[in-house]
Each structure stands twice: as C-alpha cells, then as structure tokens.
C-alpha cells in the first residue's frame, strides 16, 4: 500500500504538470520478494478511470513481445541468430537481389552499390539490417519508404504481413547490413520469419510462445471492427494544446498482425511480461527463457551506436543495444534505472523497463500523441523511477530483506536528461511506430 500511495502521488503530479487526460503505472519487484503495485490517476476515457486491466495500444512495445518469442525459438533450436533472412523468406532477400543507396549522379540518377553480406536474424534483432522506416529523416531512402508506405495505406484492402515483407524487400537499404544502427521495420520482418517457422500467423505465434504461458488474458492484436469503447482513448494534441480523440482511426491502422506494432494490452499483463523478461519464468514458475538467453538479450551487440542520428546528438552514442532492447551503460542512480537496465518505448508515450540488478520492472501507460510526447514520456519515467528506487532503497534500509543495501550509481541529472532525450529522438521520428 505504501508503494501504491507513493505511485499515485507521482502520477497525479505528472497529469497536472503535463496536462494529460490520465495515466497508469505498475511496478514489479523480482529482486527481493517485495510486492509490486499499480496506481492510476485521471481518466482513460470521459468518466472512466484507468484500472490494471484497462486495455490500451502498446505500439512499439509489441517489438519486445516479438523478440521474446524469437528467443524462445532460438532456445528450442528452431531459429539461430546467424540464420540468413533469405533462408527463411526466399531469395528476394538475398544479397544479390538487394542494393544499398549511395547517392545520385549529377543528372539525378540514383547510385547503388552491391550488398556485401547477407542480412541475418541478428541484424534484424539489433536494427542493423540496413532497413529503414516511414520516417521523415530527410534522406532519399526515407522518402522512398514514406512513399511506399503511403501507397500501401491508400489500398482499398489492408496490407497483409506478406505483402508488407515483399514490398520492403524491393526498397533499397540505407546502409550495409551489420555496419550501423538504424531504427527500422526489422522487427516486422522478424515476425514473418516466426510465422514461417511456426507455420501460422504471428498472432497465434505470440499467443503460443508468450501470451498464453504468461496468462496475459487481455493482450492481442486489435481486430478489425473492435469496439473502441473497450480501450483507453488515444489522443493527439494540437499545436495549441487541445486534445483530439483519434482512437477509431488508430484502431483501423493496426488491423494486421506484424512484429513491430499493433498489440493491445494492459498494465497488469505487461507487469507479468516484465517479470518474465527478468526472471525467465511465468508466475507459476514455468521456465520460458534461460538465464543465458536473458543475458544474451541484455548484452551489447552493437557497441557504441554509430548512425546518422549521432551527428545531431552525441548523447545518443552513449546507449548500447542488445537484442531488441536499448541498454543504459551508465546508470541513473536514484533515477529511472540502474546500470545495465534495458527498456523500450511505444509511440503513445508508454514504456516498459527492466532492471536486472534490482529486479525492478516499471510499466507506464499513456495514450497521447503530440510533438512533445517524448518529453511527456521521459519526464514521467524519471519521476516514477526516482520514487520507486527511493522506496526500494528505504525498504532495504528498514530491513525489508536480508540483502545489503547497494548504494546507487551516481550520474549527473544533465547526463540522465541528455541520454534519455537523445534516445527518444530516434523513436519520435518513427511516425506510427
């Protein structure tokens, strides 16, 4: 109850300061047996409060669930990180049939170079495949992706995952596979590989490997015609600050199951998922991932990230990247998470974080799209984590567990802010991700 009251106070401050309609948060603690907590404030819809089982769109947090499923297949020996994409999806993904954009000739004709190596599952899971997104990043390749996605959105029927995969294979790469990090549609391609291995659609794959074993009863891909009144309203903030309800429009966009977005879930379900991603086990003690696999996920596979975003913010280069997760190498001390924590963010401002040192997981639900949505999200992360970690430290000092108190790793508030804001720039530019 103490932690719940603490969370409630923090969320009330967030809603007041950021002028949000309502938010919710959950905390799990796998480190010393202390119970977790849920809290909310404001409304998920006019006249309706957020609850632990309130459904909401998780957007790119879908990627975490897809990556978890992929690691289960790796453990089963049905998938390898070194597998070439072409082996699973066909020769249209062969290096011989792909090309890397390198610029234009004086007369405006595009210049391409051959692809030096095959794209692998590891490249997909670390966003080093050379693929891009429909993002306004200003390069000719980005413009090609934007045009391609716009044409697909204009189709009378929703694009299938196979059509998406085939369409992306025809676009040029923005760089050589394995040579630099670029947030992209790679997880959508990974989802297609999982479908091929399991010989069924991705929604069934994720249900079998993740959702059902964790008893995530309210997690699924939103179907066409879903009753929008059953989920938290999705808002877009206008330049003058007004909120417009765009829920029906958003539900229509993510009708087909793909690896990178589209899941609906709840704070309660994501708390179960957070615990499983830290311990490898379900609430019933069934092992889903080994410690070795979890260590592999949170191990740096990219090094200091070098990509075109670094030219705009050197702080982004302080992040490292595991298998589908961003890793904080410095730590935030009493702030958001400790050294080695990993996390991911969804487009509506929601996030899930995992701290392997303390066993603390944090889930945050917000559904507001604005030009400053990452400012809202990062502010919320910092406020919640500061309260949670302070509570965690105080509990240990009071003798809540027999473990010795571990002093927090200290970094400056400025470093914390710069690091979080730099990472958010990548996702903020990803449009509908």
Describe what you observe in this structure.
The chain has 433 residues and is of the alpha+beta class. The chain is built from 13 helices and 16 strands. It has helices spanning 2-18, 62-75, 85-89, 121-125, 140-153, 161-169, 186-198, 202-211, 247-253, 267-279, 291-297, 373-397, 413-428; strands at residues 22-29, 37-45, 48-49, 56-57, 99-104, 110-114, 220-221, 235-237, 243-245, 263-265, 320-321, 326-327, 342-345, 351-355, 360-365, 368-369. β2 and β3 form a beta hairpin. Mean pLDDT is 82; it is low at 307-316, 401-413 and 426-433.
* Inertia-based shape: globular
End-to-end Cα distance: 35 Å
Major sheet size, sense and barrel closure: 8 strands, antiparallel
Strand content: 5-15%
Which structural class should the secondary elements be placed in?
alpha+beta
The overall pLDDT, averaged over residues, is 82
